[in-house]
Amino acid sequence: MRWIYWLGWMSFGAAFRTLFGMRVTGEENLISEGPVLVASNHQSFLDPPLIGNLYKTEMTYLARKTLFTGMGAWLYPRWNAIPVDQDRPDMGSLKTIIRKLKEGERVLVFPEGERTLDGNIGKAAPGIGLVAVKSGAVIQPVRISGAREALPRGSGKIRFARITVAVGKPIRLTEEDTRGDAKENYDRIAKRIMAAIEEL
């Protein structure tokens, strides 16, 4: 790891285990080599480093474009974050994700697109299905529990709560998954990924 990424990885990891008693289940399902599309529910700003700590090598994240100002403009790119405009999403960020995966990297995506308000898992945007098909990467479903209680959306106050990260069995698409209408396939695959997350 580059030193700035390693420093964040170590600091967040220590905090998660000390303050929140982070527990990981299904760790044997982790795909640690090759391109992996990590798909997770989204509860809190804590989610990206939570999942990043599952792996001992770097991964790529998506982050709101508005975070890339001031110190964030320097820091977030060094944490492998890709800026995304949530108000006007376009194909640019999806193409970047696909390229990163084809280059053999591991990329974290939140299919819901935004943090939950009530703790429930929302619907996935079909973009995750497009990325899965176009990249051909293995899909790693992950479910986070407790992060919303630790740092809920709209709050800047961290609370002490037990956090669990469940890792599901990888999903590998076949030719059968990509036959027929592309748009229907993307939607079906997106729903399949969210179902796998919900089951954890």
Automatic annotation (TrEMBL):
| Bilayer-spanning residue ranges | none
Gene Ontology molecular function: any one? 1-acylglycerol-3-phosphate O-acyltransferase activity
Domain (Phospholipid/glycerol acyltransferase) ranges: 36-147
Q: Does the keyword Oxidoreductase apply?
A: no
Q: Which residues form a coiled coil?
A: none
Q: Which InterPro entries match?
A: Plipid/glycerol_acylTrfase
Task: Report any one BP term from Gene Ontology.
Answer: phosphatidic acid biosynthetic process
Q: Which domain of life is it from?
A: Bacteria
Instruction: Kindly indicate whether the keyword Acetylation belongs to this entry.
Output: no
Its annotated pathway reads: Lipid metabolism
**What are the protein's UniProt keywords?**
Acyltransferase, Transferase
Q: What is this protein called?
A: 1-acyl-sn-glycerol-3-phosphate acyltransferase
Instruction: Recall the taxonomic lineage recorded for the source organism.
Output: Bacteria, Pseudomonadati, Verrucomicrobiota, Verrucomicrobiia, Verrucomicrobiales
